[in-house]
Write a structure and sequence with these properties.
With about 90 residues, the protein is mainly α. It has one domain (about 15-85). It contains four helices and no strands. It has helices at about 15-30, 35-50, 55-60, 65-85. Helix 1 (about 15-30) runs antiparallel to helix 2 (about 35-50), helix 1 runs parallel beside helix 4 (about 65-85) and helix 3 packs across helix 4. The longest helix has 20 residues, at about 65-85.
Length: about 90
């Protein structure tokens, strides 16, 4: 088994808000939640992410390496979620 080590990554705030919102939505979609439930549960996080969207170009300019790291973390999280087998509820 491959030994994994935890690494701390600094992420610009607005990109991290976007990362959190997208990852939460992907998790909910993968788990099979209804679209209305997904929208309701993630509305605040998505709203927060969108409200800071105009700051992202400056974050990319001011902290390019950290921005790329943040996007890499997000990609890894999404791949990890999608690679997991879908849980099938046990029948009663």
């Amino acid at each position: 088994m491959t030994q994994l080590e935890e690494v701390v990554v600094k992420c610009p705030k607005e990109l991290n808000d976007i990362r959190n919102a997208i990852v939460a939505i992907v998790e909910d979609v993968k788990s099979g939640k209804d679209l209305v439930v997904i929208a309701g549960e993630n509305l605040q996080g998505l709203s927060d992410a969108i409200s800071g969207l105009e700051k992202v170009p400056n974050e990319l300019k001011d902290a390019l390496a950290e921005s790329v790291s943040c996007l890499g973390v997000m990609a890894g999280e999404i791949v990890g979620i999608l690679a997991k087998p879908k849980q099938v509820p046990a029948s009663a």
